[in-house]
Amino acid sequence: MLTTSDLAQVLFTSPVQPSDDLSPDKIRTAIDDRLCSCDGDTAVCAAFVAQEAGDHPESFARRMRWALNAVTAAYQAAV
Fold first, then answer.
1. What is the domain partition of the chain in residue ranges?
2. What domain of life does the native source organism fall in (predicted)?
3. How far apart are CA 57 and CA 61, in angstroms?
4. What is the pLDDT of residues 45-70, one digit of tens each?
């Protein structure tokens, strides 16, 4: 079972942007698509997140907060 943090890391690595008009369904689909593209290996996403944190520290925290909030909202809506 993936945690909210795991799902946020996957969303972080997806091509979707906070400025996109994203419904909970679109968030969940973006996560599913990204997981499929890395064969379900969340370590791939975690490695990318770590690289982005080092390469772009000025935008990392803002995008991760967005990803955490988007995941929380999207999966609460699914319950």
1. 4-10+21-77
2. Bacteria
3. 7
4. 888 888 888 998 999 999 999 999 99
